[in-house]
Amino acid sequence: MATAAIELILEQGLAGTTVEAIAERADVTRRTFSRHFTGKEDAALDFVRGDGHRINALLRARPATEPPLLAYRRAVRAWLADRENPAWHVRPRMRRLLALVDREPALFAAYERIRVDAQEESIRILADRLGTDDVRDVRPAVVVDAAAGVLTAALRLWARSADDDSGAADLAALVERAYDALIGEAAAAGSPGTTEE
Predict the structure, then answer these.
(1) Which of 53, 56, 145, 176 is in the most buried spot, having the most CB atoms within 10 Å?
(2) pLDDT of residue 158
(3) Residues 6 or more apart whose Cβ sits within 8 Å of residue 51
């Protein structure tokens, strides 16, 4: 159903795609579609939810001694490098779909909802790693929001860079450069002479 949703939205646009058309292309009933998805946007972005779960599973598996930001970065790196179960960005036409997310408010809202849900789980994982309370301790939320923000920024730049499906490897390199930029900016902000006295 998710594949049918992506295909139809890319072929006909979001407004020109109905849930009924998606169900028909996927050869399922409307009722079956509704048991799995809240709408066409949710179906088309199911890969985001799946990859969010995968990143969180990889984050849980990181060594407990790794600093939280490094653990998140390495979980994302492992997700992008997985050849057995490739991340969505190597699938056909995903770059076009991600670019469409920025132009279609309903897709953007669905994307953000899915992204926030995944980040909430990441925050709980990091709080457990730190042995702290994710409501009272700001560190897990700060790390996740910064690390996920880096990934989101890299994905947006990647999606806007071309309309074809090439460049999957470029995304991994771009993500690494984006994390390096965050670390460099954080270091510069904390160096002597940059703080107000």
Answers:
(1) 56
(2) 87
(3) 79, 87, 88
Q: Are 71 and 144 in contact (CB under 8 A)?
A: no
Classify the C-alpha dihedral 143-145-146-148 as positive or negative: positive
- Burial of residue 6 (number of CB atoms within 10 Å: 0-12, 13-18, 19+): buried
- pLDDT tens-digit series, residues 25-62: 999 999 999 999 999 999 999 988 999 999 999 999 99
Rounded to whole angstroms, the Cα distance separating 2 from 42 reads: 8
Can you state the angle between helices 139-161 and 105-130, rounded to 10 degrees? 140
> CA-to-CA distance for 74 and 102, rounded, in angstroms?
27
Q: What is the pTM of this model?
A: 0.87
User: Tokens in use for 191?
Assistant: 């160096």
What whole-number distance in Å separates Cα of residue 177 and Cα of residue 174?
Answer: 5
Q: Is the dihedral of CA 181, 119, 79, 70 positive or negative?
A: positive
Sequence letter at residue 10:
L
The DSSP code for 67 is -
CB 45 within 8 A of CB 108: no
| Block residue for tokens 């309903």 | 106
